[in-house]
Structures are given as structure tokens and as C-alpha cells.
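pls design
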């Protein structure tokens, strides 16, 4: 069982959207797992071996959360019964308290597919009389994170203060040299943009950095001290 399971369409999406939160949760002793749904290949830059090495370096910067790659085909990811079962088996294996998935609006079809697969597999994972491996499990919470492909002006449900882990997030993102630096007209443009977004959301709660999240279901707070 893990506290947080992150379904990341490609190996860098988890870092870009919620690297500070992942580093914070790991530092707090939470059990965190990242499942990269695709290898990220084919991609305009780099190759599979390079991406795997960069992912390992990024994961180290985040504090070594558990991580695996399902190696489903990049750009061909669709919401199928077979893929729902793959994802439901993942949910059963990790039994997360909180399931993190991409926000429902996105420019990248793979991201949209992982959103839909996550919603549907959450339901599928609790079913009996099915050939999905593992014991039934229904993640109590689903939280959506924001990827960077669609330039959304977002209204999040809540923010997580990541000020103490912004440096770790930057190291993790910068590990993906092939994606953000090598051969680019503006090296570091995407990491810089993400830092600006996090600084903006940090300013909303009077902190240097924060990451935004969204939930369809209402969330409760246990006491006033959790409101900052
Ligand atoms: Zn992606």
C-alpha cells in the first residue's frame, strides 16, 4: 500500500507537474510510487536509453520514490478495455490512498488517455468476478495534476506548499537534458516556465513556491491548522 500513486503519461510529466510535492512527500516519509505509463518514445529528442537514464537521475533528485514504467506505446495510448485492465492491476498492486492523474483538459492525447484510464481503472480495480490480477481496491481519493502542454489559466482546488523542495524539483526536471536543453533554441525554457507557475501559486498563499491540484469530489480538512 502507498500513500500516493502518480500515473505519469511520460517520464517527465510527474516531475513537471508535481515534482515539489513528490519530493516533499518522500521527505516526510510517505510511501510514494510513480508509474510512467509510456517510455516517452518515440519523441522528437533523445532515445529510450537516454530517457531511462534521465528518469533514474530525476527520481534520485526526488528522493527515490518507487518507480516503474509500463512501456505502453507512446502516441498510441488509447482508452481500451485492455489498457483499463493494465491500469487497474497497477492500482491493485500499489493500493494507493490518493491516486494522482493528469487534469482532464490537455493538448496531448496521451495525457487525456491517462486521465480517462485513471478514472475508469479506479472503478474497475474494485470489481469482483474479473480477470484483473490482484485484490479489489478503490482509491479513496483522486487528485488531478496539471501538465504543461496546454497553456491553461487554471483555478485549482488546493495548493501544496513546495517551497522547501523547489530546488529538488528543478534538479529533477533538469535531469531531462534531452527534453529541455540539448539542441533547443531556448534551453531551459520549459523548466523556467514551470518555476514561474509555481512561484505564482506560491504567491497566492504567501510562500515562495506551491503546486496546484484539482479534485472533482469535494475534499475535507481535518482541522483548521491544515488551512494555510
Ligand atoms: Zn507528457
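designed seq:
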Amino acid at each position: 500500500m502507498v500513500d500516493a500513486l502518480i500515473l505519469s503519461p511520460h517520464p517527465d510529466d510527474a516531475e513537471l507537474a508535481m515534482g515539489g510535492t513528490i519530493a516533499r512527500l518522500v521527505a516526510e516519509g510517505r510511501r510514494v510510487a510513480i508509474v510512467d505509463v509510456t517510455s516517452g518514445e518515440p519523441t522528437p529528442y533523445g532515445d529510450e536509453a537516454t530517457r531511462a537514464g534521465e528518469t533514474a537521475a530525476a527520481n534520485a533528485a526526488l528522493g527515490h520514490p518507487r518507480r516503474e514504467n509500463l512501456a505502453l506505446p507512446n502516441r498510441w495510448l488509447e482508452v481500451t478495455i485492455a489498457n483499463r485492465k493494465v491500469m487497474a492491476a497497477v492500482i491493485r498492486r500499489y493500493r494507493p490512498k490518493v491516486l494522482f492523474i493528469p487534469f482532464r483538459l490537455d493538448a496531448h492525447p496521451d495525457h487525456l488517455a491517462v486521465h480517462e484510464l485513471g478514472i475508469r481503472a479506479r472503478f474497475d480495480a474494485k470489481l469482483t468476478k474479473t480477470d484483473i490480477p490482484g485484490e479489489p481496491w478503490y482509491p479513496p481519493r483522486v487528485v488531478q495534476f496539471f501538465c504543461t502542454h496546454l497553456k491553461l489559466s487554471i483555478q485549482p482546488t488546493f495548493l501544496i506548499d513546495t517551497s522547501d523542495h523547489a530546488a529538488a524539483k528543478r534538479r529533477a526536471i533538469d535531469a531531462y537534458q534531452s527534453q529541455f536543453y540539448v539542441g533547443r533554441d531556448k534551453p531551459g525554457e520549459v523548466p523556467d516556465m514551470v518555476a514561474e507557475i509555481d512561484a505564482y501559486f506560491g504567491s497566492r498563499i504567501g510562500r515562495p513556491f506551491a503546486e496546484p491540484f484539482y479534485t472533482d469530489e469535494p475534499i475535507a480538512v481535518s482541522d483548521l491548522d491544515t488551512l494555510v
